[in-house]
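Quarterly update from the structural biology core.
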Amino acid sequence: MDRAGALMAALPMDRAAEDMSGAVDHLASLDSTTGDGVAVIGFCMGGMLTFVLASLRPDLVRVVVPFYGFPSGDDQPDYSRISAVVRGHMAEHDDFFPPDGAAALEARLREVGVDAELRVHAGTGHAFMAPHDALGTRRSDLAEEIWPEVHSLIRATLTER
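Predicted structure, tokenized:
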């Protein structure tokens, strides 16, 4: 965990988002892509990167679903550029991404006009959706509840515009 934390801290978020931007272009170019954009789902560091990618690519990123991860510290994206719907799922007991940080970010996103909700799930720990349950925090009951919500949101948002 310490090594993973060090690698995550050293990763240049803007460069990672630029790399992911190529994946957005590829997905958008596929005949099988419906609607006029893409959805981005991320876990932990991937959740953090969903915000960076959404601010970098407001032209195609329409839905962002971060799980227990969001930008913190000085390296923040320009949240005012996000045009995507943001529906995050955060853990109540998370030393990496604390719930008060999620609440502050939700307020900041709403302040700049982003349709955002960052739900903190009571009684959960970091990685509560992870099927491998490496941290012993898996909540299969929440996974069964959340995944249908995520799929419905993506379908509704990508076909509305």
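Residues 2-160 form a domain with the Rossmann fold fold (CATH 3.40.50.1820).
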